[in-house]
Amino acid sequence: MTETTVNLSQIARLARVGRAAAANWRRLHEDFPQPVGGTETSPLFLLAAAEEWLRTHDRIPQPPCEPAPPRLPATVTFTNGHIVTVHGPELHTEPGWNGYADEEVFSGFLDPGRDGIPWPTASARIDLPGKAPFEVADAHVDISSWGGPMEFLKLIWPTGQRTALAADPTDPQTTEVH
């Protein structure tokens, strides 16, 4: 079985550059693959060696990232019984302010009408699609208006202070995703 060979023009196409760039790489980089055939003016290189060199030198363009699937809405149930739907929900950790412990942040967009949302702190159950439901106590509540029809909700609490709740095994939306 023979291995596939490529010329400088084909190497350049792999990297989405012109042939002159590939010829310059060959001249300037001692670790550029050695020819395995061809002629002095049109050398041939092993495809596998050329691809490895291009990857090592970060010369192969990465394919565009697939867009993330749309995030399903989350539900927040406050201890006072008020329930809100949060669109585009996110849950992440941020460094604490002024050297305090890291904080967890749950955020997303609300439909208008924040009546019933406790402030400045609240305890709530959060049902986030793809995660097991959890509760937080005494989370800092921040509601911002973005000038449009929706408002932005942030619940912030110290890392490690959320309580996992048992997921409903019949609900595919509460299956933990790793």
Task: Write a structural description.
The protein is an alpha+beta fold and about 180 residues long. The protein has three helices and ten strands; from the N terminus they run βααββαβββββββ. The strands form two sheets. The protein has a six-stranded antiparallel beta barrel. A three-stranded antiparallel β-sheet has the order 1-3-2. The radius of gyration is 27 Å and the shape is elongated. Residues about 170-178 have low confidence and may be disordered.
Topology diagram in text:
Elements: E1 5-6, H1 8-15, H2 19-28, E2 37-38, E3 43-46, H3 47-56, E4 74-78, E5 83-94, E6 103-110, E7 121-127, E8 134-145, E9 151-158, E10 162-164
Antiparallel strand pairs: 1-3, 2-3, 4-5, 4-7, 5-6, 6-9, 7-8, 8-9, 8-10
Helix pairs in contact: 1-2
